[in-house]
Write a structure and sequence with these properties.
With 242 residues, the chain is α/β, with parallel strands linked by helices. The protein is built from ten helices and ten strands. The longest helix has 20 residues.
Length: 242
């Protein structure tokens, strides 16, 4: 299943009408599902848009504070659009903050499970900083998290990890894999449409499929031009390799 993280097209989704129009366009491009992200107001709006347009939603990605402070609205939005997974990302980079995050994340994970949802953690590259303990934040999260992992191919590479090795080792804990390509610009690495960057996407997809991952979600944090055109280029390439 090929989905898209709606953060990719966030600039096109300013109200319910524009959100519905954007979701329709994504479905016409061939995307089979979506993942939502943003503050609670954005999540509610895009959940309604997906519900009205018949776009399946595989999950919602928010901050841990939203999970704690707006949980009832979050659960209601997830039920409205049919999302089964609620995920978080963070910016922790040391032992103390990681321990605190795990405590909060695991507490919410238990609540989410009681409400019928799974819980996942989405990485960036800070998690690959090696802490004073000698271990990386990501190693601590993999060991201590009560839930699933939501790896992001760009941020794995950006953090210095071996993308396929990480997937091979942790694939059984992955429900959603973020596919994000990386290209080299003058100022350093940056985001690219799938197939327009330098990551071995065919190898990554084959590796993911070999460990049972079947939900691939395209995300592009920054697009050089029209986000829908970027979304089109990404799915056209993915259709050739999935």
């Amino acid at each position: 299943m090929i989905g898209i993280q709606l953060y990719t097209v966030r600039k096109l989704m300013t109200d319910l009408e524009s959100s519905r129009k954007t979701v329709r366009a994504l479905r016409e491009l061939g995307y089979e599902c979506a993942q939502l992200a943003g503050n609670i107001d954005t999540v509610e709006m895009t959940a309604e848009a997906c519900h009205l347009e018949g776009m399946p939603v595989v999950g919602i990605l928010v901050d841990i504070k939203i999970c704690e402070d707006e949980k009832e609205r979050l659960f209601a939005a997830a039920r409205l659009c049919g999302a089964k997974d609620i995920g978080i990302s963070s910016s922790v980079s040391n032992d103390e903050d990681t321990a605190e995050l795990l405590k909060r994340a695991n507490a919410f994970s238990k609540e989410a499970e009681r409400e019928g949802f799974t819980f996942s953690y989405h990485n960036h590259s800070l998690e690959f900083i090696r802490c004073e303990s000698g271990r990386t934040v990501m190693e601590k999260i993999c060991d201590g998290l009560c839930g699933y992992l939501m790896p992001d191919t760009y941020w794995l590479q950006h953090g210095g990890a071996d993308v396929r090795d990480f997937i091979e080792k942790n694939g059984k804990r992955v429900k959603i894999l973020h596919l994000k390509d990386m290209k080299r610009a003058i100022d350093g690495p940056t985001f690219a449409e799938i197939g327009r960057g330098n990551l071995n996407m065919l190898g990554i997809v084959e590796c993911a499929k070999s460990v049972g991952i079947d939900c691939f979600v395209v995300e592009q944090d920054k697009c050089d031009g029209d986000p829908l055109e970027s979304a089109r280029m990404s799915i056209e390439h993915l259709k050739k390799i999935i």
